[in-house]
Sequence to fold (159 residues):
Amino acid sequence: MSRRSNPVVRRRGDGTFELVLDQPNRDALYSLLGELEDLLELAPDDPSLQRLHPPAYVEDPDRDVAYQILAGDELRTRRRETIDAVRASLLRTELTEDELWSWLQALNALRLVVGTRLDISDDDHRHPRLDPDDPDAPLWEVYDFTTQVQYFVITALTS
Fold:
């Protein structure tokens, strides 16, 4: 993706946005979001989801378990609804500002899961040059792709 013009989404004069992301990248994002949705549904205890469900009460495990029971299902339901909305919007060319905010939430969730799998910390600004045969190379490609899409969505929203 080029940084010169926005290859993802462009603001229109009427306040809507035109989705200009090419079809292969739409398909990739659609698939990645489907994988995230499956992970949320089929493996809610997967360690790579830990940043999506951080403890609310670090110092009080009993209170945190109660919170996770009360709020966890609602948070997971909202996340799935957001993913479904973004996947549906990938099939159209016109988006609203609210839909783009959903994109940011979904992209952030993807990046958190991939970042957890890559063991990226908050202070970690490295980006290794990986051999294509490195087992982490596909995850780095996903991380880079979702970071770029997120950048262009933010650029469109703030333009």
Observations:
- The mean pLDDT is 89.
- The longest strand covers residues 9-11.
